[in-house]
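Session log. Operator J.P. requested a structure for one protein chain; no other inputs attached. Running the standard single-chain path with token output.
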Amino acid sequence: KLNDIEMTTGRMRVRGTVDSFDAVDKLTSALKTYRCFTTVNKGKVDRDSKNQNRVAFSLDIEVNCAPPSQG
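Structure written below.
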């Protein structure tokens, strides 16, 4: 579940909750395969304070969707 997405030029921050710590790793790995996301860094990852069965996370993503150079 995504709780918050902040976007600025060249940057995106995503906050949400998932079922497990492994799910955060899977999400991070999947986002890294998208060519426009030049870096995907995990921020704080911890048990959700409102629901201990969930894991709260934040991701910082650098975005650059310039067309690939030809040459």
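Operator note: The longest strand covers residues 37-47.
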